[in-house]
Amino acid sequence: MYNYSFISVTALFCYMILFVAFMAAQKTKIIHSFLVVLAAFLLWTGGSLAMRMELWPEVEFWFHFSIVGLIILPFTFFNFIYALVDSDDTILWWSWLILAVINNVANIKWGFYIPCPEVIRLANGSAGFVYHIGWPIIILFITMSFPIIHMFYLVHKSYRKNTVERNQLKPIFAGIVILFIGHAGTLVPVFRGFPTDVLSGIINAGFMFYALYKKAFIPADTPGFQGEWFTESARCWWHCCLPITSIRSRSLFRGTCRYLREAAF
């Protein structure tokens, strides 16, 4: 077994760069909703990384921190499409938000859906994590599917009104499919201990950014997306977030970030 912290590091790096870059952009309803999606990803991957690094206060705290982001993620996707197609169905919007909150409370208080993983000490002294997921996960998948189904309905409705072109949404849905496959992979015994869900999230973030920037959801002249915005975002993440890591994991951050910077620039 391996710790696979580098996957969480890479995911956190990608989400933080996107988050800082979009924070600098001119705020619109669509950008605000995309920032909420990124915030959920940051909760999820940041908590996962802190858990794998066994940071203070404890593994269980960071596990629940991560799962909060995971469980609320379907709602944030729905909220993104809700803003994209300019829907006004506020009753169901609040219903899916309340459902996400209830699911989070049930999991934090009783570990009903996803219990805290078993910590296995590896030969090199680091920690490995194995999840023992039971039948209640089916209930979570069903309830999390409600906002996703509604999201697809909104898209279908917008097709008929020609509000959003089908090709513009293809990258977004491709990313969602990959994300779903990644989550399903955590239930496959051969992938036990490997964070297929976090890995798929990295790919999904790339698809979402491509859809927003290249498919004209964000105009090319939007303030905050001109010049060296990507470089500045990466530099900001490097100086602000790197110091909070533990000394024993800093070399891992440096190696991963150096590789990403060389590949990107």
- Strand order in the sheet with the most strands: 1-2
Low-pLDDT runs of 5+ residues are: 240-261
Order of helices and strands: HHHHEEHHHHH
Mean pLDDT over the full residue set = 76
Characterize the overall form: globular
Number of helices: 9
**How many strand elements?**
2
Q: Provide the helix percentage.
A: over 70%
User: What distance separates the N and C termini?
Assistant: 33 Å
Q: Tell me what portion of residues adopts beta-strand conformation.
A: under 5%
Using the CA coordinates, give the radius of gyration. Answer: 19 Å
- Label the structural class: mainly alpha
Short description:
The protein has 265 residues and is mainly alpha-helical.
Question: Which tags fit this structure?
Answer:
265 residues, two-stranded antiparallel sheet, mainly alpha
